Amino acid sequence: MKLNTPRSPHVLRCAIAVLAVIIAAAGSASADSIDIDLFGFGPGNTLAVTDWSTSFDIPQFDPALGTLQEVDISFSNTMNTSGTVKNTAAIMEMFKVTMDLETDLTLINGDILSTDISKQQSYKLTSGQYASYGAFTDSASTTLAYTVADGAAFTSYVGTGNFTLFAQTMTGETITGGGGNILTNTSTLSNISGEVDYVYIVPTPEPPVWLLLLPGLLGLAGWMRMNGIAAYPR
Q1: DSSP secondary structure string for all residues of 112-181
Q2: pLDDT digits (tens, 9 = 90+) for 46-74
């Protein structure tokens, strides 16, 4: 009499593993992001004479798109400064002229993103002598990220409305030395451009449970048939 010897349980383990992978994949999600550009102050993001202020209206992240994971806010700006200086003293003077530009971006919760640019030039001028200051061009950038751990500072970016970011510059000129006898005539221009980036998770729609189980059940049934195993042994 010939007996049917069941094959190795390796095939069964493979079938179960495939089924587990299918079920796990059903609950998976993919990452995505939305980038919102902040077009800067002035037409075409050209340089504008400081000091200036401006604002940006930004849409909140729509929760219907998925689950927000992170909000990244960044901006950069360029400073261009130039002019002339004059020694009005009756004697030669040695001095320095420093131009500082601070650019602030105020966020929803009152946090402030800032950049600072500073340019300095040294002089040794005789009485009544003029000299040029600059021209100098320099740039700076900064960024800030919010996550779920930041609480209200993070959730304030979620919704179906808009919020406003405010930007402004503060320009300062410092003369070191010269005994109060130095006249300056300078001009500073700057711009700002940036981005709000929403990083979120897009859930993958889950198929019906029976559709998930069907491939594994069919594989299991086939294995049992090949090995002569009854579904309901007597």
Answers
A1: EEEEEEEEEEEEEE-TT-EEEEEEEEEEEEEEEEEEGGGTHHHHTTBSSSEEEEEEEEEEEEEEEEGGG-
A2: 788 999 998 888 999 999 999 999 999 99
Residue length of the chain? 234
Burial of residue 62 (number of CB atoms within 10 Å: 0-12, 13-18, 19+):
middle
Question: What residues contact residue 49 under an 8 Å CB cut-off, 6+ apart?
Answer: 187, 188, 189
CA distance 106 to 155: 17
Q: Are 136 and 89 in contact (CB under 8 A)?
A: no
24 three-class SS: helix
Place of tokens 């990244």: 72
How many Cβ atoms sit within 10 Å of the Cβ of residue 156?
Answer: 16
Task: Report the amino acid identity of residue 99.
Answer: M
How many CB atoms sit inside 10 A of residue 205's CB?
6
Could you tell me the maximum CA-CA distance found in the chain, to the nearest angstrom? Answer: 127
**DSSP 8-state assignment for residue 194:** E
Residue 79 burial (CB count, 10 A): 26
| 72, 142 contact by CB (below 8 A) | no
Q: What pTM did the predictor assign?
A: 0.73
